Amino acid sequence: MSTEGTDESTAPPSPRRRPWKRWLLWGALALLVLFGLAQLVPFGHGKNPTVTRAAVWPNAQAETLAANSCNDCHSNLTKRWWATEIAPASWLAQADVNGGRNALNFSEWDKPQADLDNVIESVQSGSMPPLQYKLFHGNARLSAAERRQLVDGLRQLYATDPPAGTKQGGG
Question: Backbone dihedral region of 143: left (phi > 0), alpha (psi from -120 to 50 degrees) or beta?
Answer without folding.
Answer: beta
